[in-house]
Amino acid sequence: MLVPLFDTRGPLAPLEPEIRAAIDRVLESGRYILGPEVASFEREFAEYCGVAHAVGVANGTDALTIALRAMGVGPGDEVIVPSFSFYASAEAIPPTGAVPVFCDIDPETFCITAETVRAAISERTKAVVAVHLFGNMVDVESIAALGVPVLEDAAQAAGSRLDGRRAGSLGTAATFSFFPSKNLGCFGDGGMITTDDTSVADAARTLRFHGSRDKVHYEQVGYNSRLDELQAAILRVQLPHLDSWADGRRAGGAYYAASALAESAQLPTPTPGCEAAWHLYVVQSEDPDALHERLEQAGIDSRAYYRTPIHRQPAMAPWSAGVELPMTEAAAERHLALPISPLFALDAADAVAAAARG
Ligand SMILES: *Cc1c(COP(=O)(O)O)cnc(C)c1O
């Protein structure tokens, strides 16, 4: 491919000597699980997000399950979640004992809104998973105003801001994934929970280590789910560059907006007040397969991520009977992700636009 969907390697190239030094530092320390690197990265990431606490976990999916349990979600509860997202946003709910209740999205921002959440609320609603999809952000305040605690799924939104506040600082708690292709990615799996609530942070810390505070008494059935020292050390090198990478993603979006792409597809719309660090640049088309074909012929990568929305996945059948989500269905049929990265250039945007026109 002349223009790949992602560029995980390019932004890291100038940091390679520093990353190798960090890896050596961990190797020589002899401490590989829950040592000083994780503790330091948790402090640095909390400060970056503008929250009091960050708790490192093994991946973004565990982060969701653990954060929900730390917020008090359990058997008998309902958790509202969009169906147009990565599968894990909903998959993380049943392990808490609660059930997922699917809600629709706004067709232009791809995000849930106070209106779509209101339609799914019941007396048993214990939390809402607000997915900041593709780097765009949910207006969390308007949903919290309905009186339900919000967990931000910020796996795709590291570096995005809404009204000047960072993704990860708006809900009761938030979760991140450091899967390699995410806006901030490590060299394996990793995840984080952020929160201002000391009791939620404390519960998450306990749950990630088998439900124990002292490795002697086990209060709950928890998880073995830690961010490891090596990944934390690698992420510490990258974090100071996240804002400039996010600026690069925003610039990429601006190049697309300035190109002729809008003649061939509907461009993504940021939520009002959102400075989106586009994780994926997702357009909509009446015929996304034909658009994909034209791009492929020009050597340009593109992909439909969520053609089958979560509520229509076989595993979700117990919780999706009678669920109707027209905006989700439309987005699932019409979306196509185009190349974007922190280094995405003006001429690449023009090349995509030209190929899209055919
Ligand atoms: C990637 C992702 C997750 C899961 O993160 P993992 O680290 O892969 O477990 C959850 N939610 C969303 C929206 C994601 O994009």
Helicity, as a percent range: 25-40%
The CATH superfamily of the largest domain bears the name Type I PLP-dependent aspartate aminotransferase-like (Major domain)
The count of strands amounts to: 12
The CATH topology of the largest domain, please?
Aspartate Aminotransferase, domain 2
Number of domains: 2
Shape: globular
The CATH class label of the largest domain is Alpha Beta
Question: What is the string of SSEs from the N terminus onward?
Answer: HHEHEHEHEHEEEEEHHHEEHHEH
Could you please describe the fold and organization of this structure?
- Helix content is 34%, strand content 14%.
- The chain folds into two domains: 10-238, Aspartate Aminotransferase, domain 2; 241-357, Aspartate Aminotransferase, domain 1, CATH 3.90.1150.10.
- The two termini are 17 Å apart.
- The chain has twelve helices and twelve strands.
- The radius of gyration is 20 Å and the shape is globular.
- With 358 residues, it is α/β, with parallel strands linked by helices.
- The longest helix is centred in the C-terminal third of the chain and has 17 residues, at 242-258.
- The strands form three sheets. Strands 1-9-8-5-4-2-3 form a seven-stranded mixed beta sheet, sandwiched between helices. Strands 7-6-10 form a three-stranded antiparallel beta sheet, with no helix packed on it. The chain has a two-stranded antiparallel ribbon with strand order 11-12.
- The protein binds pyridoxal-5'-phosphate.
